[in-house]
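LAB NOTEBOOK - FOLDING QUEUE
OPERATOR: T.R.
BATCH SIZE: 2
PURPOSE: Compare the predicted structure-token outputs for two unrelated chains run back to back under identical settings.
PRIORITY: normal
REVIEWER: second-year student, initials M.K.

ITEM 1
FIELD SEQUENCE / FIELD STRUCTURE:
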Amino acid sequence: MSGWLWLVAGLYLLFEIWRGWRRGVVRHGVSVVALLTAGGIGWIFAWMTGFVSDRIVPLPYPAGRLLFGLVAAIAFYAAAVAVSSLLFCKTSQKPPGPVRLFYGMGGAFFGLIFGLMMLWGGVTIFRMLGAVAEARQAAPGDAELVAVKESLEEGTTGDIVDRVDIVPSDVYGLITKLLRVTQSPEATARFFAYPQTQQLLSQSKIVELFTDPAVVGAASEGNYLSLLTSPKLAEVASDPSVQEMFKTFELEKALDYALQESAPSPVPMP
């Protein structure tokens, strides 16, 4: 299947090069700069409007901020492209000669850059969705997503993807394992029975958090927004000793222990 992925990627890049030639160097150059800038604009907007989004978006933190930031990024990009289309000429609007050639070739170059950026982001998105699908494998489209992820990670394609993907490969495996554990009561029980997990949960700061009335009430009501914005949770999360314990916590080993199908043998305390 990896051959088909290379074919689709190549055809998409050719399309973007052709589209860049038609739009011209200035128009498509603005598109590339706007795409690079949109992420920063979205992050700043999400940070500045957090006090509003946390209250009006009925989703767990930080989903509201991410939603606000995404809308701001899309709006900025769309506005930049629209303004550039109004202010600057297409290649075909230039008189024949060196200027038109420059406009076309410059636009084609930016088309290539734009296409590579989109493919780069697409690889991360498909690998992330594939990791989630590997854990679920219930919905009709999960098998296709898993197949795409596996194709992206095998052979020469996998070597290239590992070099260019901004997310380390280990993260996708952790996501799959974590979702599998949370979907199985037995695996969840084994995860909490893992000695290092028990050691972490026995710390006084963690015990205080789990016995705090406000935290217990929010958890029992399923009020994740209140839970995640709890001052007690923020206090515990900012504690240096707790942070150090989470840094040394071997999450993958705990997940592997939880996912053993047969009853795992006792694990010696670290």
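ITEM 2
FIELD SEQUENCE / FIELD STRUCTURE:
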Amino acid sequence: MGNKLFKVSSFPHIHANKDVKSIMRDVLISLLPAMAAGIYFYKMQSLYMFLFSAAAAVLSELIWNRIVKGKFFLEDVSSIITSILIVLVMPNFVPLWLPAAGTVFAVIFVKELFGGLGQNFVNPAATAKVFIIASWATLLVNPVEAVSSATTTAPAVSMKDIFIGYASGNIGEASILALLIGGLYLIIRGVIDWRATISYLVSVALFSLIIGKNGFMTGDAVTGLMSGSIFIAGIFMINDFGSSPMNSLGKIIFGLVCGLATVIFKVIGNNSDGAYYAVLVANLFMPMIEFFTVPKFKKEAI
């Protein structure tokens, strides 16, 4: 080999004829159905949130690059993708600055501070959601809905409406169908591996049947899977290149860990955002999962 040097770039590393820009473009396209569904069910307020947060993402990255690297440039649209995911996990009634603040936190403190794209060890959008909950939890509760739910019983929603879409919960959780369309596009394009997603969904169903209670997947795995947050986490978050394993066995184990954590937070903790907390827990196990699943090669004597 001599003294020949090889330049190794940051994540993502994929065995395909793709570069980072094309991968990020595909991820952005995959989010369009969920964005369209969110705007349809939550009207103009959700559109304003997408635009405001995207502007915050671009400005924060530009300012960071100016201060640290001495020039303005955007290497890709990953910061905009992060801003979209953050809006998707927000309710529509929050002030516009709230998801924007989460976006700035995710771009600067989760992504750029650790070296930029692919260097984050936790998922930026999930971290931003937890940061917002810890900082401004009261703003995530709609006072009108809180009063009405205390005095009236919520009407039953059909499985068809849950799957196709209806206005309830966070913006991106409105339509499971829209999320599945985006996920199928990413699999077909070879951007994500189906193993982590399927492993996650199967483990959520399995562990919910084992420890389910209070109506969440009590004897009915299909009903329990009908949650938009599970599909956002299972498609877009656990397949994050920087914070998830890259080998096939590691992806399967990662999905299992995340699924177990999701059920613990949702069932035992009664936390509707449990899937996003579960992603962060699984992210912390990722180095250990990769250590035990990456094939080891023995050095041969020359």
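REVIEWER COMMENT (ITEM 2): Residues 193-293 form one domain.
FOLLOW-UP: none requested
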